[in-house]
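Students often ask why we bother encoding 3D structure as a string. The short answer is that it lets us treat folding as translation between two languages. Here is a chain of 357 residues written in the first language.
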Amino acid sequence: MTNDKYVGLDVHQASTSIAVLDWDGKMISNAVVRTTADAIRDFINGLSGTIHVTFEEGTQAAWLYEVVKRLVAELVVCDPRKNKVLAVGNKGDRIDATKLAELLRGGLLKSVFHSNHDTKVLKQLTHNYDSLVSDTTRVMSRIKAVFRGQAIPCSGRDVYYKRNREQWMTRLAEPGLRIRAQFLFDELEPLKALRREAKKVMLKEARRHKAFKILSQVPTLGPIRIAQIIAVVGAPHRFRTRRQFWAYCGFAVVTRSTDDYRWDENGPLRRSRPPATRGLNRNFNRRLKHVFKSAALQGAGHEPFKSYYQARVAAGMRPEMARLTLARKIANRTLTLWKNGGQFNERKLSAQHDRAT
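And here it is in the second language, the structure alphabet:
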């Protein structure tokens, strides 16, 4: 419509550059405002007509999404990895904002999903738990590094137990190492307590969601993995097919081909050579990939997935490819159950059942 406005926001910590284009692509406004909710709202509310807004996914994207979405007719949070045009030519805040507005006007942006309010709390609690797990693991690795640096064997978890601490400390002859180890042990204890509390709060919130009970039917998906899946995915119907979900989980095979057609008297004919494979896709959600990879590793040794995994290996598939196939299988079952409800059916684990939808 001739009264449409296309707004590009280049967001930074202190300031936000804004470019506004009209229906014909003519620049009608170019401004710099403070990166605050009030300043951005005031600018957008001052525009007339039908407003379309875009900005790139980043640290402040979730916050800005909540600020802007109720004020405009269309909001596109775009994937910066797809916006190669921003790297061409001169670069600056105003230039980037203008390019974003132009891409929005042309319908050339790849949007990034932002979940609804239902999973907003769980998403933050999952981030909190994952951060505490990382912090705890880091400190535990540093403790073992102290002992390994002195050629003291410390495999397993015995070194972390408080009841054995004095025994382990006596094995460090150098005073400086004992002081360092004591500080690390003192850091570890409150982190372990915080991690336990964070897990408890996260699982309590996760059990409020209907999907938690549904996904609990899937073998190898424990409460923590289910909470992480719900927090990341948000809404299962955003994935139309299982192949889209595989790509999001990092399980899609990337192929490359060129010179695909030859010409004869009947017209173009596609060449019969297969496209070259280039491994798995690199643009994926890392938390979700970790969840399904670890579930597949566990499932390879336990029924009902153990038989499926062993059948793939017996058929000549390499073990790593069999584990990838199993991870895809678990991801597919998870998505299907979440979408349709019902009961988990072990008889549907045959390879023939998993044809593309």
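Translate back mentally: The chain has three domains: 4-106, 118-208, 211-253+280-353. Keep this in mind for the problem set.
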